[in-house]
């Protein structure tokens, strides 16, 4: 097992940042490489969220609720209120989706609170040299979820406006359209304005997707690095080193809990906002 005692600081961090992958990655974007650890922990946390929420629904009673039922009901009401404030047309699936996203991202983020050497140590017992359990610190997972939100917003846009209305809006918003006449200049102006509208809409969709994924990834990656640096303090066998390691680890873990919940809440709200925007723009035209 790679530990802070047997490696230099840079080697220790580099070791923990490596994924259990199908092969070496060439370049920043390499679709031929699969990160098995990210895929496994994403699916594992998703299954756990579904099971827990399913148990809450099955065991729900109309009488005095248990603490577990009360906590789930509080969370459901909180998410539903946010969905009502943001999504104005069709909330049939928006609120359940937001609840699932919040719980899923929170659970994936919470893996960062587990001691950084514990899960890799378990993997080492099964012959796995590299295992990185924090899925949200791998750009593939947050960006993949952001792309899924983009697909959902496009789906709602087409569902509510119709395919023709959706495509039409790509060319007439946000600057509107030119009133055509026999003057050929109006036709030329209409083409330029339609191209500008279409280009801005594409840029907006792409930028929102990247910013959504990069925001979650950047915060969790930075938090993961800080835990690695704190773990390096434990490699100092002096009483001062051990004390500093425990103190900084405890303080950062307490603060990191707020980051975990905040990033999950932001990701949930952006999901609702983007779906809501796909619907509200229909009423504006």
Structure description:
The structure is a single chain. This protein is mostly helical. It has one domain. Helix content is 72%, strand content 0%. It is built from eight helices and no strands. α4 (94-110) packs antiparallel against α8 and α6 runs antiparallel to α7. The longest helix has 50 residues, at 184-233. The protein is globular and about 80 Å long. The N and C termini lie far apart (61 Å).
Helical percent range? over 70%
Provide the succession of SSEs.
HHHHHHHH
Structural class: mainly alpha
**Average pLDDT, all residues:** 85
Q: Would you count the extended β strands for me?
A: 0
Radius of gyration, whole Å: 24 Å
Give the count of structural domains.
Answer: 1
Question: Given the structure, what is the number of helices?
Answer: 8
Main sheet specs: none
**Residue ranges: pLDDT <50 for 5 or more in a row?**
none
Shape: globular
How far is it from the N-terminal to the C-terminal residue, by CA? 61 Å
Q: Report the β-strand fraction as a percent range.
A: under 5%
